[in-house]
Amino acid sequence: MKDSYNLMDFIKMYYLDSNIPMYLFENDACVFCIPEQTELTYPPKKYIDHLLDSPKRISYCTTEYGIFFCSLKVDYPKNGTIVFGPLTNIPYTESDLQQLYRDYTVPNNDRTGFHRFLRQIPCLSMNSLLKKCLFFNYCLHGELLTLDQLISSDASMQTTLTDASLLEETYQTKENEQHNQTYAIEEQILNLVKTGNYQGFKNIEFSDSNYHLGVTGSTALRQLKNNIIITTTLCTRASIEGGLDYDSAYQLSDYFIRASERLNSVESLYDLLSKVGYTFAEKVADAKTPVSTDGCIQKAIRYIQQNTNQHLTVGDVAAYVGFSKSYFSAYFKKTLGFSVSAFILRCKLEEGKELLQYTNKSISTISTFLCFSSQSHFQTAFKKQFGMTPNEYRRRRS
User: Fold this and answer.
1) Which of 19, 101, 150, 204 is the one with CA 20 to 30 A from 110?
2) E strands present in 63-174
């Protein structure tokens, strides 16, 4: 391509056939995208950063819930990268959509439009997307790369892309009646973590018979280590949903994963596995601020923390726990020393801190997502709470 205009024309023509969203980046800035859209549907910064930082011609990344993006480095413009996605190989489930709303910071009143954007995107496997990138690369640069070369350069992709071997393993597993029976216990574990009920783990005994995640390793040790990684990943997400802050959750996640790699006996790995969920649940319980043994108060606190992106009123919280607004307001303040409305505002501002640190969404988008009446209201409340403006906080954290 002689110039960026020709490249943009080529991207437009390719989109007519593929319907895959594409974004052209120069350095860290998006200079062109198709289809036309607002920043609401731009890929989240954490995935873009991963793709732009990769030195490979073709790179990819996947979310924890199975959505994937792919990127292609271009020779012109200099430091240019085309990003493809988001894509999935099966239709979006309700759980996927909820995760996407969080990842993309989509306000409630924009979710219909966001869902409409997703419905325009075809379902593709990672294998198919990479083949399209190989073709795109050949058209732009005349490079004849193959899928085998991509697979051999990234060992983690080999099992992902060998569809035939995966089907054979699935068939053999069914033949041997090695069915995955862990859904019920997994759901129980994640619920205990989200609610901070660490005492509940005393009734769970981990063993291959009741917690079998399928064949995830070539040896017994590797199998156990991989099971710990999988369990830790699930518990990390559950703990964040339960109110644990991102930093604490991911620090604990790193600890368990590193610890599993250092251990080399089945007994010690089983012992570590039994502590993963318990420790996350304990951290969630400790993070429940303010502390109260009153079940009604804890229920209200959890409801507020999980609905920071809603137009939440004192009346809403009182109705949720089953009391009148006047009675619950007085009871809450008497028990904890501050009002329900003050705690709602505090939780929204804490969420705002995380969005400022971990996303590149504008302050206006964040204030709308958290349902502040205006951007200036958010900025004023943020500075009063934390002693600095949202912009100052983002610069310091960066």
Assistant:
1) 19
2) 68-74, 80-87
